[in-house]
Amino acid sequence: MRNRKVQERIRYHFNDSHGRYGAPKITFLLQQEGYTLTERTVGLYMRELGLRSCVSRKFKVRTTDSNHDLPIAPNLLNQQFNVEKPNRV
């Protein structure tokens, strides 16, 4: 009886996190609800249920590659921004 309730809660937390939470986070959430389970037990239940968390890569900033051999646009303004009328430069 207890196993079925625990498995329902595991499936709920897994689906609530869109498949991102693994055994450690689900164990933490279940312990906050009052269940006394180990991470290993939650992992075994997840394996029985066929649940596997989706690990996403961390965001890595990609900046401009300034070391290239491509032509560089000429600097037509040359820091002279004063114009007579808008949209003339």
UniProtKB/TrEMBL annotation:
InterPro entries given in the database record: HTH-like_dom (IPR025948), Transposase_IS3/IS150/IS904 (IPR050900)
Domain HTH-like: start-end pairs: 4-59
Pfam families named among the record's database cross-references: HTH_21 (PF13276)
Classification via PANTHER family: TRANSPOSASE INSF FOR INSERTION SEQUENCE IS3B-RELATED, TRANSPOSASE INSO FOR INSERTION SEQUENCE ELEMENT IS911B-RELATED
Listed name of the protein: IS3 family transposase
